[in-house]
Amino acid sequence: GQNIDQPTEMTATEGAIVQINCTYQTSGFNGLFWYQQHAGEAPTFLSYNVLDGLEEKGRFSSFLSRSKGYSYLLLKELQMKDSASYLCAVMNTGFQKLVFGTGTRLLVSP
Amino acid sequence: EPEVTQTPSHQVTQMGQEVILRCVPISNHLYFYWYRQILGQKVEFLVSFYNNEISEKSEIFDDQFSVERPDGSNFTLKIRSTKLEDSAMYFCASRLQGKFDHGYTFGSGTRLTVV
What we know:
The complex is a heterodimer.
Chain A: E1 3-5, E2 9-13, E3 18-25, E4 32-37, E5 44-49, E6 53-57, E7 60-65, E8 70-75, E9 84-91, E10 98-100, E11 104-109
Parallel strand pairs in A: 2-11
Antiparallel strand pairs in A: 1-3, 3-8, 4-5, 4-9, 6-7, 7-8, 9-10, 9-11
Chain B: E1 5-7, E2 10-13, E3 19-24, E4 31-37, E5 43-50, E6 53-57, E7 65-68, E8 75-79, E9 88-95, E10 105-106, E11 110-114
């Protein structure tokens, strides 16, 4: 079976740093994605990790530990527009469907 | 930036009616997907499509669902006889072969309401 866990909700202040964790158990692993989703909109791609370690992309960084089944998304210098849901998704082997977690709703306050 | 285009953006239909949701994937992408998201719940995989055939489908994708790529550009999802529980946001996605660093590109979705 497959299981992807994320916190349901987090709050943070504008300008701060927040870390959103994701743990997973999956039968076949071919990489992990983070997506941002504003309410009523499509998920938009943030990052992809397949090797252990940290990938940095501007204000956003993503970390993966395959042995621990663990990833996090780090958001720096938070802005109000970062208020959204952040979806962790594992890509399976084979035809590589994405299996999503329930998402973490982040609320950034002034 | 290339986009995945979905039409219509909203669809209201009566229970038991057939609906067709349309998608135009990015032109050089080779893998196509349908996902759905019931309000307040997680994004769920429905079906993947490659080389003009279904490559994988979920338990949700039963006999009431079908997909088609009738020409070189459109990718459709048909629900033959809609149920109330089919009400959801339906997302089409596509990706290049072997290219994951740009992720899967999702369309803006079709909000289906079954009444």
